[in-house]
Amino acid sequence: GVVTGVSAGTATIYAIASNGVKAQVTVTVNAATIPVQLIAVNPSQLTLTVGEKQQVTTTVYPANATDQALNWVSSNSTIASVGQDGTITALAAGDATVTVYNIASGVTASVAVTVTAKPVVETTVKMERLYNPNSGEHLFSSDQNEIEVLTKGGWRDEGYAWTSPTGGTPVYRVYNPNTGDHHYTLDLNELKSLTDAGWRNE
To answer: Mean pLDDT, to the nearest integer, of 162-173?
Structure first.
């Protein structure tokens, strides 16, 4: 009377006694569950720059595992977030671990993620030095229109002086209309004092 499941499906088993009495039982055989044993990820280590994305591919073993559903999670979603398709997005500089797991089997795999900051691209402008042979003054400018006007007015363009960054702390150029002098300063207090005294902020 031992019943052995052979394949998935439903069967009715009958028992007939020697006196002709019958009994029956309906048996349902479920398919065997094949658990996930391994999840392989590619790549297993990933370096991204802030703003970049990359999808991680997975392979489940054995290939005929019954429940192959996968979920993704990040150890630090402020550094690297992950979608349920395995796409990792770099959000901020730092390190995070992205884990993919199969709930049914408890098998996991992980991706070590390093996020680097975007490189700072510093733009620069070319500063030219001009000389006034009448006053002996030197003036620095990156404005080609100003340079053209001054050279037409008798200033001598002495060419390239240095390259100045367009970012960072600004340098203010002020002009004294009484003496014709130019002055350069980083100090906002000094700038205010000079402009209050009649200097012109250029």
So the answer is: 79
